[in-house]
């Protein structure tokens, strides 16, 4: 029996209670996270402080990447990739007609879906509050007074 459990930001696939695969925090996830600490007006982008990063090859899907690019904040994506040492020589601004440039799409695919932060933290740019990343899962829960 297969069971898919979606626990944002991880996907756990189990077969008869045997863990088969977990998807760690990718830069795609990071690009959409923000700090909601009380009083914070600019909680984005979160600064990455990674102590463990890995790259896992994922099948390339040009259509998926092409559809995701307009939803991304390009500057913070490139900044995060540079911090992790995986910028892939991507430009600081989005290129025109990117949907027809397979080399470009493959580079974006790599930083969005293959670079994974396993251990470290995400830091709010305004408050300095750190959110730990453990085993690839960012803990964005706030304390009651936050």
TrEMBL record:
Its main location: cytoplasm. It is found in: Cytoplasm, Perinuclear region; Nucleus, Nucleoplasm. It comes from the Eukaryota. The keyword Zinc does not apply. Coiled coil: none annotated. GO terms for biological process: rRNA (guanine-N7)-methylation; tRNA methylation. Residues 1-15 form the signal peptide. Keywords: Cytoplasm, Methyltransferase, Nucleus, Signal, Transferase. GO terms for molecular function: methyltransferase activity; protein heterodimerization activity. GO terms for cellular component: nucleoplasm; perinuclear region of cytoplasm. Belongs to the TRM112 family. This is Multifunctional methyltransferase subunit TRM112-like protein. It comes from Triplophysa tibetana. The lineage of its organism: Eukaryota, Metazoa, Chordata, Craniata, Vertebrata.
């Amino acid at each position: 029996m297969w069971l898919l459990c979606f626990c944002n930001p991880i996907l756990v696939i189990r077969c008869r209670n045997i863990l088969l695969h977990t998807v760690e925090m990718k830069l795609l996830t990071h690009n959409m996270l923000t700090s909601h600490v009380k009083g914070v007006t600019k909680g984005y982008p979160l600064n990455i402080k990674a102590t463990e990063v890995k790259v896992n090859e994922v099948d390339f899907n040009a259509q998926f990447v092409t559809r995701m690019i307009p939803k991304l904040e390009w500057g913070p994506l490139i900044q995060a990739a540079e911090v992790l040492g995986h910028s892939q020589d991507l430009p600081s601004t989005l290129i025109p007609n990117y949907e027809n440039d397979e080399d470009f799409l493959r580079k974006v695919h790599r930083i969005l879906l293959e670079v994974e932060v396993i251990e470290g933290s995400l830091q709010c740019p305004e408050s300095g509050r750190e959110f730990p990343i453990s085993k690839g899962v960012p803990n964005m829960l706030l304390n009651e007074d936050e």
